[in-house]
Amino acid sequence: MQVLQVQLAVAADPVEVGRARRWVRAQVLAFGADPGSPFAETLVLVVSELVTNAVVHTGRPAALRLSWPPDPAAPLRVEVSDASGTAPAPRHAAASATNGRGLELVELLCARWGWCPQGSGKLVWCELDRGPLAGGGSAREHGMLTA
Questions:
Q1: Starting at the edge strand that comes first in sequence, how are the strands of the sheet with 62-68 ordered?
Q2: 81 touches 122 (CB < 8 A)
């Protein structure tokens, strides 16, 4: 089984997060999936969180990679690499906080996630099941997206 892989270079600018989201939506279409599906919406949210972490917290360029197996039972893998060797650490944000929930969302919505050192930086990865999500629903069902 050949896995389709696509990669996007992300500049060290927070504006790039929006470009990464648009790119992911285009890839969903290119792979023949419905860009309005709960899976696609969740994928865009997860990518947004991981790319934001890489760009905002490091101030350096990053790389985004999607690995899309043709088997619909196989998970889609998202990888974001950056130049910081600092380990990602989920925070528990206060209810009134407007940020600080990125990795909590990734943990909730993905079947698996982790990280590993890569050169002088790191690679953060997650896998999304293309059926019902490991967290028990899509981002919309968890109230993280609105219509």
A1: 4-10, 62-68, 76-82, 121-128, 112-118
A2: yes
HEC readout, 26-89: HHHHHCCCCCCCHHHHHHHHHHHHHHHHHHHHHCCCEEEEEEECCCCCCCEEEEEEECCCCCCC
Predicted TM-score (pTM) of the model is 0.83
The alpha carbon torsion through 108, 115, 26, 42 (nearest 10 deg) reads 0
- For the chain, the domains span 4-128
Say how many CA atoms lie within 13 Å of 96 toward its Cβ. Answer: 0
Residue-wise pLDDT for 98-142, tens only, equals 555 678 889 989 999 999 999 999 999 999 998 644 344 555 555
Fold held by 4-128:
Heat Shock Protein 90 (3.30.565)
SS3 107: helix
